[in-house]
Amino acid sequence: MTVRRLHPAWYVAAIAFIALVGAAGFRATPSVMLRPLNEEFGWSLGTISAAVSVNLLLYGLTAPFAAALMEKFGMRRVIAGALLLVSAGSGLTVFMQQSWQLILCWGVLVGLGTGSMALGFVAIVANRWFVARRGLITGVLTAGGAAGQLVFLPVLARLTDSQGWRVAALTVAAAALIVVPLVWWRLRDRPADLGVTAYGAGPDDVASLPVVAPGSAARNALRALKDAAKTRPFWLLAGGFAICGATTNGLVGTHFIPAAHDHGMTETTAASLLALVGLFDIAGTIASGWLTDRVDSRWLLGGYYALRGLSLLVLPSLFAATAHPSMVIFILFYGLDWVATVPPTVALCREYFGASGAVVFGWVFASHQFGAAIAATAAGLVRDQLGNYDAAWYGAGALALAASLLSLMLLMGKRRKDIGPAGPGIGLAFPPSHGQEAATGMTDLHR
């Protein structure tokens, strides 16, 4: 009998997924800590939200440089270091007494650490290790953030209620630290390091395509931005993704729990609803990855943003003291659409920018976090000034509809002709391998 071994790409993807789950833990924490920090220190929601904004902004700005650093120093070193930063930033918050310390620990350290494990990391793993199933893998890894939210948020909410926010912060620090040995053990930079080719690669496929040219990581990241910024698709993608960040991490991810609490809902119940967003997000993102391999990504983005905008416009009327069926339906729908935008956006960056696609996506993702940072602070100020969040929800809904139009405007552009065949999917710089279309079922895992 011949024993077939699982392709190493699946081990790399599994460890990447676990690392992303670990990084997501602290990103889920702000929404359960807003009220406890406000009550203990007397800091306004605007002040606390400013620290969240620094976290979100650095999370995005770090991504393109982290992608270039992974090219220079390797994924394993960068991801292990990033997890240590997350653990340190989360753990040190228990000693803070002033708001600037919150910004330093929660904003700077955790922002830099989680930014190094942002969606640019997802793009690099998918592009280096997979030729077949690239869209699906992008969806699965992107769902890692949702899984982290799903795992941590209800636990953190209960810990905060019963033991205090410091125990919750230390729990996140320990979780991030535990992942470091796994990353060092199994994560590898390229298929060639193990003497194999990328999963699904045929004889005509490039087994390990460099994302950027050799040289300074910062120089390569800035060069990719300079070149991409000269193109119309970059600004359309970046504009839409900025709105994506504003309407997810910045607004719903940060302010849903205090907004629900304003209407009499307990924070534990609101945290459980937000965790359900993470649960449905896993299904939605994986499904979006599957669709990205089959449907034009421009149409997918247009549909995702339009549906998100319409759902946000009805959200203010759904808040109540209990989780009634209409709110549960919103949570289900919004969860399916939460980061379903990521696989088609990664695909379009690869399509328009070729070998620099992962680094360019890092810059597009930076715009995502820039939008999230603005929304996090703005929503906190709206609540402080008006006493409720209604204006924030309506404004976000209108912005999401505008993002739909930006995405559909990409249909008027032309594809690059020098990066492979036209068609949906990620990694169009690779010609399709002969066995790619035929690979199906469980036997596909062993190729």
Automatic annotation (TrEMBL):
GO molecular function: transmembrane transporter activity
Main location: membrane
All residue ranges annotated as the Major facilitator superfamily (MFS) profile domain in the record: 11-415
Membrane-spanning ranges: 9-29, 41-66, 78-95, 101-124, 136-157, 163-185, 234-257, 269-291, 391-411
Entry's Gene Ontology cellular component terms: plasma membrane
Subcellular location: Cell membrane
Annotated region (Disordered), positions in chain: 427-447
SUPFAM superfamilies associated with the record: MFS general substrate transporter
Record's keyword annotation contains Membrane: yes
Domain of life: Bacteria
UniProt KW keywords: Membrane, Transmembrane, Transmembrane helix
Membrane topology note: Multi-pass membrane protein
InterPro entries: MFS, MFS_dom, MFS_trans_sf, Proton-linked_MCT
Pfam families: MFS_1
PANTHER family, alphabetized: EG:103B4.3 PROTEIN-RELATED, MONOCARBOXYLATE TRANSPORTER
The name this protein goes by in its record: Putative MFS transporter
Organism: Actinoplanes friuliensis DSM 7358
Lineage: Bacteria, Bacillati, Actinomycetota, Actinomycetes, Micromonosporales
